[in-house]
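User: Small ask, check this?
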Amino acid sequence: MQIGDRNIILVFFLILILVVLGFTGLLIVSDFQMNFVDSLVSTYEVSGRQSVHKIEYSLRYGKPLENFYGIEETLQEVKQDLPEVSEVQIISTDGQVMYDTKGQVEDRVLPEKLQKLSNFGYDSETNYSYGTNDGYYHVFLPIQGQNSEWQGSFQIIFPEDIINSHVTEITTELVIFLIFMSLIGLLVLILLSKWIKFINADGKVNRKNFLVTTMVLLGIIQFIFGFLNYTSFRDEYQKIAQDNASNVSNVINNDIESVLNLGVSYHQLYGLENYLANITDSVPEIGLIRLNSANEVLYSSEDALSYDELADINLNEKDSSMIHLLPMIEDNEQNTAFLEVVLSEDYFAQRMQNILLDSMTVLLLSVILMIEIILFMVIILQWNYDKKGYSKKSPEELSESISPVLKPRIDNRAIRMLVLIVGAAVFMSASFIPLRMQELYDGAFLGMSKDMILGLPISAEMLFAAIAAILVGKVIVSKGWYFSLLLGMIIFGGGLFLSYYAVNSLTFVIARAITGAGYGSTLLAIRGYIVNEIPSEEERKEIFPNYVSGIYAGFIVGTVTGGMLADRLGFAQVFLVALGLCIVALLFVVFLLNPRGQLKNQMNQSLSQTSDTEKLVDKNGSMEENEGSSLAYGVFSFLINPRVLIFFVLVVLPLTISSMFVDYYFPIFAAAEGATTSNVGRAFMLNGFAIAYLGPFLSRHAENKLGSKKALLASGILISGALILFYNVSTLAIAFFVVVMIGVSESFGLVAQNNYFVELRDVKYFGESKALGYYENVRKLGQMMGPLVFGSVLTLGMMGVGIIGITTLALIVLFAFVLTKRN
């Protein structure tokens, strides 16, 4: 291999390392930041909570919050406990700033962004909420008056630099690791390139050597990189936990000293156990707090019955880093004491387990991304060498060519990467669309219940995706696939942008409708590229599986990444990330798929363009140019044909509606059960894995062992059975199981549906391609109806899910009975 060829390989490999490890590192850093913020805020909440209790005590005895003399002294106590805090304020229920540490405040309003926090108002399920604005974190603790009514909020403000300084340390370590691992990887690849041929003598990329070498090498690098980051993360988090323990100790010390200064002795501190227990509840990384004298435990956060058990615990055997000791002043009887704060090993282990789970999730995503990028880089490398060979040809050689070319085209398998990018942008918000709608919910309209309204964005998205898929066929006929693709991606990007800026329920539903129309047009136009630009039927059959694989890879990457980013950035910001991917996809199309830069057989292209266009419209189920009444009658007759109608009504619609448990119901249920958006994303990932990776295996065996009819029935029984199981055992674990089972069912069930449908005599007579187009539209109709059906029956609680499951099972059994009668 020549020096220039090797340098190109090394450059591509370096880019691959930076992209994959950079993706891994980005999610790790964001995960660290989120955990650090939660930990620090919970510590600040301890100090603020004591002040809130003092204010609430006065309010319950009739002191009005609007005229609270001396409240600035209470606020100043928090700043004394937490010197890094910028300001402490009291906020009214309508967002007015009432007091700060200097006293009463006039004509100052809380920024609108912070007033929109979902938990700014009193919420019995949460103790506090927080948000950011103009470089500062704002922590809100609700203040309750008489009858536990929300009277206002206690606000603690601290600069983002406190968080950023720690994040910068982690980021610096990550960058050092990344550079180090990149250099090691390049060095190893340089050594391997002396024995392994990546470019053959004929200028072709040795696909097998390149794939195996880069995958093994990058896989090892990625694993080491992930381990180093996990170790660094664990050490930093332990340091943060120790700092929090120190801060909590100082708060407790100041509170106890204020009582001791009144002449009370250590043995007279009434109710201190409850006070300490409340703190351990507020700061979960703290497992035990004790106030000890020289010879005995005076007070503990555990109740009195646990003292003997606690005495058996030899804290000296624990890691000293897990214990924080703070000497205290003498009381009026010259008694000394010290405060002992013990970090919770169980909580710390659980947090590290969650971090490890996040790291493994990121690692798995990175492996998928790595494989896809390597496959794409092989295509780019080959394209680069083809162009080099073309540029070396003389004008005489070009003139002798029977089929004149503009320049070598990129391998059509590059479509896989384009579809992955588009798919990731489409599915990035899939795990939280109902939750975002819940945030924007501003009251019922059109007489619909809240549950039904929460499903409207998904229904609108699916409906307009189906409509666009029909209409864009005519656009492709008149303007071509390239124009249709650019138009679809622009509409898609506009929908994502509007999704970010949506301020209420109606605008969000409109935004998702535009988004659906955009990506529906985009995906169909990509299929238009496959039909129009690939004249060979055999090659088209090879490219379509790449198209499908790209969709599912995008689904996995998009749902999991979107879920993790939503936990860290917020729901709205994820739409901007998806918009960024949409722009990347647009650039991909402009620079790599532009028809003017593609290899064309100009003689054959002009002759076959019309027939290819007709094939495209036919393949996507759109109407042909002939729009006479006979065709309309033919479509109507096909749709009401008993075999077709029974299949659509008894199989396609109920199974598609039931499968929307994943997209609509599961995110809402999981959030209510306390699951993070990241975990919801992981459930979507498992669903996608079941479809993408079990699908080829299960569908092949189901077809061979059962046949399409029995496989179809088995799929329906599996989905309905999973919903009925959830109705009987409504736990988060079972909900995860149902999501996976729906994925398993669809992995072979969708293929069985397709095979059964195309085998119908009426389908063959009507035209397979057109019939499949209507089949896809019926599925889109089911996806649109799913959220509305779930929303309408959820007023019945879990019984609603059971009704859907039982109804689906009954329809499948009825379909089996009809099949038996027909046979």
